[in-house]
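agent> fetching stored inputs for the fe (ii) ion docking request
agent> found them:
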Amino acid sequence: MFAVPENTVISAVRTAPQQPTKIVREVAADRSRWAHLLRYDPVERWAALVERTATYEVWLMGWLPGQHTDLHDHGGAEGAFTVVSGALSERVARRGQPGEVLHVVRTGQSRVFGPDYVHQVANEGTDPAVSIHVFGPTRAPMVPYRLDPVDGPVQS
Ligand SMILES: [Fe+2]
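agent> prediction call returned; pasting tokens
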């Protein structure tokens, strides 16, 4: 008999999606599921719920040039996003570490995030961008952060 370390066993009560990148890519590839929901709002980034299950939500987002989020986490949610048109700039901040890491996420590329993930996302290009996001178990309200020069992201 041997002991199984606790952190190697998936909890039966886990409610986050098991394969968020697979989910966003499948939804992104089937435009009939979301194209009719797409809008561009000149005031703020557009977001529309595509589908909701017991363990995750899929959201469509439309980004005009210059539109962006502030630095945030997802209130304990985890998930992934993929860009289906244009490009998004993602700045990831890690707790206890100064600075941010920039990822340019282009059409067809995806990023995955855990429950402690802090980032800021922007359309810094000259064309609109479209992205599909999965949040598990739900798209909780974004928790705002500021970037401390020594400690990295700190809740604001
Ligand atoms: Fe986010």
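agent> quick read of the result: The helical segments are 20-29.
agent> awaiting further instructions
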